[in-house]
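Review box. Two proteins, two foldings.
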Amino acid sequence: MISTGATRAVRIVHAALVAGLSLVGATFLFLLRALRLNFGFGAGLGRLFAVMALVVLAIALFFLRSRIPRRRSDQSPEEYWSAHESRDAAVILWTIVEGAGMVGWVGYLLTGSVAPGLIAVVSILSLILIRPSRIEGHG
C-alpha cells in the first residue's frame, strides 16, 4: 500500500531537521556574542567536541549514505519514499548528521571555540546536500 503523503512527509522532516539545527546555531551564536555568555571551558574541550562531531559526521556520510537504496527508473518518488528501506535509511542518516551538528553546537556554546561551530555548519550544509530530491536522483 502506498502512502499518499510519503514524499511530502519526508520533505517536511528533512526541512525541520535543517531548520532546527540552524536555529540552535543561531541561538547559541546569540548567547555567546550578544549576551556574552561564557561557561569558562577551555579550547581543548572545544577541539574534543570538534573531533567527536567530525567523526560522527564522517561515519554518517561515508558509511550510512551508501545504505540508502537508489530509486529505480520505474519507481515514482511517492513509491520510493513509501518503501521502508528508503525512508528509514534516509531518516537515520539525517538524524545522525543532525546529531553531529548538535555535538558541534554544544561544543561551540560551552567553549566559544570556532572549530566545533564550523563542524556544525558543515553538518547543516551536509544536510542540505543530502536533501530528498538529491537522494531520489532529481537534484
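Next protein.
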Amino acid sequence: MTSNPMKAIVLLTLSFISVKGTLSDVLDTKVSLIDKGISTFYVEGIIDGVGAVDLLIDTGAGYTAINEETLKTLKKKGLANHLRDMTAKLANGASVVVPIYRIKKLNIGGSCEVRNVEVAVLPGDSRCILGLNTLKKVAPFMVSIDPPSLSLSHCRKALNQNTLGAIR
C-alpha cells in the first residue's frame, strides 16, 4: 500500500469500478453544486416538511446537520424523532453535546431522495450541512470541482424535481 492517502483512494476507487463496471454505471445520479465564491460548495436540498435548503458539502462532518429553527418546524409536523444525545467535536476543537434526530426524507439536488436520515442539531441559525452519514447512503459518490457537481449512487429518485430554489 502507498503512503500517499490520495493515491490510495484513487487506487481503491479504480479497483471498485473495475469490479462493478464503468464509473457512469455506478455514479448514476449527478447534481449541480453551488459555488458561493468562498471556497465551499453547496447543493440544493429539500427537507421533507421544511422545504428548500442549501446544504454545505462537508466530507469532514460525520453527521448531516440542521439548525434549531429547522428542528422546530419538523417537530411541529411530527417529522423528527429524537434518538439520542452525543458529544461532538467542532472544527474549532471545542466539544459540545448535540441531539441526534431521525428525519423521514432528505432530497439532494432534486433527483436523489434519502430516507431515515440521522441529523445532528446545531445551535442557533447554523447553516445546514450534508455530512458523511448521509453521503455513505449514496456511496460511492464523487465531488467534482470543474464543473462543480456531486455524483451519487443508489439514489431513490425523487417524484417532484421542480420544487428546488433555495434562496442563495
